[in-house]
Amino acid sequence: MRKNKLFITGVLSTALIIFGSLVWFGGRSSKQEQAPTAVTAIDSERLIKPHSPIKGDPSAKVTIVEFLDPECEACRAMHPIMNRLLLEYGGKIRLVIRYMPLHGNSRFAAAALEEAREQGKYFEALDILFERQPEWADHAQPRPELLVIFLKEIGIHQKTLEPSGLTTKHGWKIDLDQADGVQLGVRLTPTFFVNGKLLDEIGYPPIKNAIEEALGKL
Question: Assuming Cys at both sites, which of 61, 67, 89, 147 could form a disulfide with 100, CB separation 3.0 to 4.6 Å?
Fold first, then answer.
C-alpha cells in the first residue's frame, strides 16, 4: 500500500514539474512574441538628423542613438547609465537623442527641451526634467506646468516656455523623430541603436557589451 502511495505521489510530482515547465516556457514565448520586432535592414538616414542633439565627441567611432520620452520612467532610469558610459568611454562614443512621445505631456516636455537647447542648456534641461520627473509626470496627477518652474531654475527664459507656442515652434522636429522611429521599428522607450544595430535589451551590461562589440569591429 505504501509503495502504491509513493508511486502515485511520484507521478503527481512529475506531472506538476512538466506542467510548470510548460507554463514557464510558454510565458516566455508569449512575451517574446509581444516584443518589438528587430528591423533587419536599418535605414541609416532615419537614425540621425541634422537637428538631433548630440552628447560626446561628434567624431566618435561608436554612435548610440536613443529614442526617448521625457515622461518615461524607464528613460529616467537609463539616463544616469548613459552618462556613466559616456564618461567611461571618453571620446570613443557619442549619444544622439531622438524623441518618441508616448505619454500625454511628453510632446510639450520635448519642445521645452528644444527651447532650452536654443538657449545653450539642453543637457542641463534634460538632467532636471528626469531628476524632477516624479513631480511633473506623476501618472495619477501630472503637473506639466511645473516644467516652466524647473527650467526657469536653470536660467531658461520663462516667457519662451508658453506651451502652445513651444509645440508650434519645435513640433516639426518631434514629429520627424517619431515618424523615423516608427519606420525603424521603435515601439517602446527607451530604444537604443549602437552603430545602427537595434538592441533587444537595455541596461548597463547590454549597452556596454554592444559598445565593446562595435569597438572590436573597428
Answer: 67
pLDDT digits (tens, 9 = 90+) for 97-108: 999 999 999 999
State the pLDDT confidence band at 32, using cuts at 50, 70 and 90.
Answer: very low
Helix (H) or strand (E) holding 68: strand 62-68
> What domains can you pick out in the chain, each with its CATH number?
44-216 (3.40.30.10)
What confidence category does residue 204 fall into, taking pLDDT thresholds of 50, 70 and 90? very high
Phi–psi pair at 42, nearest 5 degrees: -85, 125
Placement of cell 528613460 in the chain: 75
Helical residues (DSSP H) of 56-188, grouped into ranges = 73-89, 106-118, 122-131, 133-136, 146-153, 163-183
Name residues whose C-beta falls within 8 Å of residue 132's C-beta, 6 or more positions apart in sequence. Answer: 146, 150
Phi and psi at 72, nearest 5°, equal -85, 130
Q: How many helices (H) and strands (E) does the chain have?
A: 9, 5
